Amino acid sequence: MSTFAFIFLLFSVTILIIAAFFAAFKKDLLQAVIATSIISLSLAVIFYILQAPDVALTEAAIGVALSTIVFVLTIRNTKRMEE
Amino acid sequence: MEYVALTVGFIVIMAGLWAIMTRKNIIRIIIGFSIFDTGLHIVMVALAYVKGRTAPILDNTVALDDAVNLIVDPVPQALVLTAIVIGLGVTALMLIFAMKLHREKKTLDIRSFKDLKW
Amino acid sequence: MISPIHIITIGLGGAFALGFVSKKAKALTTSLMLVAIALMGTISGSWLFELLSGGTETMVYTAGFKPPYSINLLMGLNEALLTTMINFVGLLGGIYLFGNLKKAGSHAVMVFLVFIMGLNVIVMTRDAFNLFVFMEVVSIATAGLILLTETGKSVQAGFKYMMATGIVAGIFLLGVIFAYYFSGSLNIDDLAAANITAIKGGAVAVMMILVALVLELKPFPANGWALDVYEASDPGVAALISAASATAFYYVLFKVISIGNADWYNIIAIAGMITFVGSNLFGVKQDKARRLLGYSSVGQLGLLMAILGLKPYLGDKLEFIAITILVSHYLAKAGLFWLAGIIEQENIKDWAILRRKPIFLVLFGTFVFALIGFPPFPSFYGKWELILALSSAGQYYAIAFILIGSFLEGIYLFRWLGYAIKLDYTKLPEIKIEWNKVIPVAIFGVLIYVIGAYTGTQMSGLDSLCYGPLLMIPFLYAIDSLKVPIKNTIAILGVATFAARVLPGLYETDMLRFIFTFIFLVGGILTLIAGYAYKGKREGFYPVALLMFVGLALIIRASNTLEFFYGWEIMTAGSYFLIIRGKKSMPHGLSYMLFSIAGAYALLAGFGLSFAETPSIEISSLSAITSNITIIFSLLAIGFMTKTASLGLHIWLPGAHAEAESDVSPMVSAILLKAGVFGLMILMIAMGHSPEATNIGYVLGWLGAITALVGNLAAAFQEDAKRLLAYSSISQLGYILFALAMMSHLGWMTAMVYSINHFLYKAILFLTIGAVVMRVGTHYMYKMGGLIKNMPMAFVAVMIGIIALSGVPPLSGFAGKWLFYNAVLDVQWYFQGAIVFFSGIIAFLYLFKLIYSVFLGQLKDNLRHVKDISIWFAIPIYTLILGIMIFSAKPEWVLQPLGDMVSQWYPNSALSWDGGLATGPYGYWNGTGVMITVGIMFMALLGWLLLVSRKAVKVKQFNIVYSAEAPQRPETTHVSYNMFAGYNKALGWLVAPKITEFWDTMTDWVHSVAHYGRQLYSGNGQVYVTYVVAYILAIYFTMIF
User: Fold this and answer.
1) Rounded CA separation C835/C709 (Å)
2) Is residue C400 domain-resident?
3) Gap from B54 CA to chain A (nearest CA, Å)
4) Nearest to C854 by CA among C778, C925, C937
5) Which of B13, C174, C905, C1026 could form a disulfide with B39 if both were Cys (CB 3.0 to 4.6 A apart)?
6) Burial tier of C867 (Cβ tally within 10 Å: 0-12, 13-18, 19+)
7) Contacts of B25 (CB under 8 A, 6+ apart)
8) Nearest-angstrom CA–CA distance, C518 and C130
9) Considering C100, C126, C152, which residue would you say is the last residue of a domain?
10) Does domain B4-52+67-112 have CATH number 1.10.287.3510?
């Protein structure tokens, strides 16, 4: 269990960092926002592994869904590409 | 395990700060705040984690009278829940500001909003 | 008692319930919100009342558990006071913003209510995470309120605010979670008890918590975002942020600082002092009103932070100091922001609009004086106790920082006030009066006096008489719409009543105070008589004139340094307003005020240090000081010399005296300057006998001598008659300083005689010249001339005045001269004495110029029909002349009591009297005899002249054969224009305005530092975030090393 969880943790962490990189650098803000929601998703996984299932649920709901929606709405109302 | 998470948490916090301080696009800065918050949350949950214990949910596998020794610390988790919700509120409000700023100058470059200075 | 938890239930529940009220009933929604805030305020107010009357504080545990398993709230005296303050300003602020809130609708109303509720919780909670939650709630609500009046700028400011507070909140949360990790509790008291700073990680956790709280208080330089918010949000919102939020966040730091160790007090003290000095320095260059208020707000918070950090040195005085300064800031800043919203003028120069409704100007002045810490406002007492406590603890650097910061704040606040009082407002629009906006300001304006008076009663050592006479001022202000004769009579009666009560008793018991009271009050009555010459209402004159006289009287009455300083500041305030009344007096009023503040701070520091030595505030205890004499004596002497305008500190005087109104010039010259002399005498009586003081006295003697010389030289080169008299005053005060500094019997006799004489003849000269100026309409002597025929009364008065001034027999000036030579011989200050003697010769130059150019020579065409001076000026002038005559004929009537008085302190080489004959160590003199001899000589000469002049041929002025002066010549060729050009060539370098240049350079330097320094605030929100992060790192590294 423990080793498996550890590997899984490392995997999620890697995804999180790659996603963070995308979120910071992608010219297309929409892609950046999607990267942010991937961060939240892997975060939810990390929370689950760290014995915090309730937090994982919340993070999934808020970080992946709600937060992404408000970001996308804003981008629709402003500019998608960074100049 | 918690050390990996802690380290990652701090790295993410730094990454968020870096984005906030260097990216010029306002939405990107708000994404930076989002990342910054994410890092904080990882750190908080990692601090609560104790090796070999289960989630702070009392069910058949956790005996009530021994619960304190079997589960991880529930307080930080409760705090993270609150923090996540507050974080969403802050992000949403910042995005509203971003829209209003864009409406004013048709740009999202933070350098063009320097009407107030000195 | 109602549980304090209901503050939250009403706040949250109310905000929630407001959502159900019909969207259309906007006025109803807003009114309901005000009711909710009023209820919250009632709860906290009733707790305040309960706790003040001896109730016990209460702890509220939510959810029925004790911490760490639940959140607990404390309602103690501090919490009750602060929540009451917050709810009160919330209520008034809500009323102020009624229109905006109504327009913005129910969402804005909810945000407003949540904002106030959140601040209440922040004050009461004892739980660190709860604190975080409500800090975020308040921060979101604040950002919402910033959008209440949506302009491009307010949106930008709001975004910067969110960025900065976002980082700060994150750091705070991180700190809280680590603190929990190391201590196992979120309760602040448990955290403090756990002493986690001892653990390495724990110290970092504490660092993050405290640095976040410091950042919430907008420390310099990580505070650009806060300045933007103050500038760009609606003034009603800015008032709340400055008064309510700042109060709450200050208290958070106040209670949470206990989790840190002793180092933290130092860090916070230093951060606070840097903020106080830095933001006030940058404020100097600012001309946008609300941003300037922002600088001032940030500065005041810095001061409060410093006070908290200095807690280890303040002991049980901490709460008194913090509360008085906090309350002053709270009332004044909210009031100023609200005023800014009413008059809607961005540039501080346009605040002259306040004069359209003079009551607003009064409120503005009140708030400005309260911020600087003048009596009778609470901050005065706070600052006093602060400096005393810091002196006792030996924290000299802290004193220096705090006083410098206050001084810098004085620069911009008084410049601003000067603009409001003096600049032209006729081109500015009318002020729109909305009662819901005016009432809150008025309430705060009244409250600041009430609380100030209450604070005064809490001070030990402050006689109730210290604020009793002040009641004259509101009374005179209330009747300001009456005509001059009525108000003048009331003012004179007021001063006379006080004089009649005080003077008779003093004659027997205390000669020194009798003489100065006589100068201040009888002089006051005489100069006030001249006021009858004015027509109309003369608005605002009487309250401020009386303010000065009350201050002077208080100085005399003072038995301890607190009362003395109180009176000193009252006098300064009154004389400032008197001086700035002159037409072109705006810059002179400012420079007078700045020198006065600097002087007052020197006094404050001196009194503080003397308190640390003795420890007593009694004036008599000054003599018990045994160490630090040099520094204490110097500080106090410098403080007093700003009023005597000694060389180096004199540059405010010529302009201030010359541009003042005709009857104000004698008040501020003949009378006001004596306050400095009185102070110096009190100081020297107490401390002059020590060897250190004797050394300083030697320096002061030189300074006095040079002042006398330079003052007289400068006077000789003036074209402006009043400026000439002003420089003459500088010089005369130089004589007095010189004589005082001898610290011998004859020296002090000289000083006293000069003081009395200067009072008499300078009052005569300024009154006469002032009256002449009123008639002829110019100060310039080359535009006058030949007025002897039209103004014989003025001529005689000036004649007598200059004879007395020059010190030739038979008038009383000679007594001064005679004593002076005796005194110089006695202490053997030959070289300095020679300088003073030389300057006495120069005096003849300007005195000749004065009488010649004004009264002799050719009459100007346009002045052909000018009348003699007003009878209301003539009455005091001739009363004073009578005084000179009596003094001259019977000098022993004055000199004998004086001699007895001075003998108390300097018994050696006193004069001995035989009837009217005085015998000193170096000669003898009989005043009456001299008078009679000279009188006979004069009569003989006059008789001869009259006899001879019968043969003289009278010619018309334009009979050019005789008069030899063509009419209508250009002014530059007038004989009295640049009259002493030759002397100017020879000696002019002595009066080159080096000192003025020095002060100008200093001013420029401050301005350029402010100019370049403030470019730090580039306006870019990201840059501000960088400062915030850098600030955290800086504190972190300070912690490590």
Assistant:
1) 7
2) no
3) 6
4) C778
5) B13
6) exposed
7) A29, A82, B108, B109, B110
8) 65
9) C126
10) yes
Structure-token pair, residue C80: 């009750």
- The sign of the CA dihedral C433, C436, C441, C445 is positive
Q: Which residues of chain A make contact with B17, given a CB cutoff of 8 A?
A: none
Do C1026 and B21 count as a contact with CB atoms less than 8 A apart?
Answer: yes
Per-residue pLDDT at C68: 67
- Tell me if C854 is assigned to some domain: yes
Write down the domain spans for chain B.
4-52+67-112
pLDDT at C862: 84
Which pair of structure tokens corresponds to residue C1025? Answer: 């975030």
B40, two tokens: 């904080």
Report whether C441 contacts C339 (CB < 8 A): yes
Strand partners, A67: none
CB C775 within 8 A of CB C867: yes
Structural domain boundaries of chain A? 3-77
* pLDDT 10s digits, C405-434: 999 999 999 999 999 999 999 999 998 899
Mean pLDDT of A56-62: 91
In 3D space, the residue among C305, C471, C479, C287 whose CA is nearest the CA of residue C402 turns out to be C305
Q: Is C468 exposed, middle or buried (0-12, 13-18, 19+ CB in 10 A)?
A: exposed
Asked which of C79, C100, C126 is the last residue of a domain, the reply is: C126
Nearest-angstrom CA–CA distance, C566 and C555: 8
State the DSSP H helix or E strand holding residue A38, giving kind and residue range, or none if neither: helix A29-49
Domain residues for the domain of C538 are 460-939
SS3 C925: strand
pTM: 0.94
Distances (CA, A) of C271 to C47, C274, C1017, C1034: 34, 5, 18, 11
Say yes or no for a CB contact (<8 Å) between C162 and B21.
no
C281: in domain: no
What residue of B is the nearest CA neighbor of A16?
Answer: B12
Torsion C894-C895-C896-C902 (CA) sign: positive
8 Å CB contact of B5 and A46: yes
C-alpha dist (Å) from residue B67 to A50, B61, C183: 17, 10, 21
The reply to whether C11 falls in a domain is yes
Residue C271 contacts residue C211 (beta carbons within 8 Å): no
H/E stretch holding C58 reads strand C58-61
- Min Cα separation B21/chain A (Å): 12
Cβ–Cβ gap B116/C228 under 8 Å: yes
Contacts of C129 (CB under 8 A, 6+ apart): B79, B82, C176, C180, C186
Distance, C-alpha C656 to centroid of its chain: 16
pLDDT < 70: residue spans in chain C = 67-68, 464-468, 955-973
Residues A15-38: pLDDT tens digits?
A: 998 998 888 888 899 999 999 999
pLDDT at C960: 55
Are the C-beta atoms of residues C8 and C120 closer than 8 Å to each other? yes
Write down the pLDDT at residue C962: 52
